[in-house]
Please model this.
Amino acid sequence: MTWLKDVIGTEKAIIAMCHLLPLPGDPSYDHAKGMDYVIEMARKDFLALQEGGVDAVMFSNEFSLPYLTDVKTETVAAMARIIGELMPLIKIPFGVNVLWDAKKSLDLAAATGAKFVREIFTGVYASDFGLWNTNVGETIRHQHRIGASNVKLLFNIVPEAAKYVADREIESVVKSTVFNNRPDALCVSGLTAGAETNDEILHRVKKMAGNTVVLANTGIRLENVERQLSIADGAVVGTTFKYDGVFENHVDVQRVKALMAKVKAFRGDKISV
Model:
């Protein structure tokens, strides 16, 4: 049994993304509508996900495009306000992801009581955001300094829109990441949000990961969810829960219910009457 059962309540867990609209400081932030509108839309999307039956939610500043790797204070402050205002409504476990800044994700988790964070913790990459470096040793020490030792760390080892500077086989990446860093989970992604995770790569990661949780990180849909969950220990799901399966749209509760019904049947969950 993995930590997913203890922290999220089930194996083969579905972690749904609650994508926040552009925030203060972001190029596309709507100054006229302001933070009240951002919070209203976050509440709407979150409640649709929760009502739809997802196992957990991860809040992310998904529309803070183009992303920073050294995120500004105003972004973390805005995310903390949103989660704080939603807190009375939250009945399921939640995590956070401040794109793409591991320390800021941990700061937000410590402030809000998030159970997990997903980030790029290791590696050096050639990316759409320039040369992307990390410092996992300092990040983990920061985690312990701020009292976030119990926050589970989801390592994104196949980053979206980026590639290792060194030519490394995925098996090498998995083996050294697990040995050196003891991640709580490894996230395997497609090229962008909504792009299907490659089955072969998922298999190769799972084979090398030992007892470490492996999550399919992008591109889960009705037609592939059973296949991907037969390989992975769980999945992070965002785009497919939105109206018409379009990244920019808001969450459609009927799409959430449809996918979760299939997941729960696959898991053999007891359905309460």
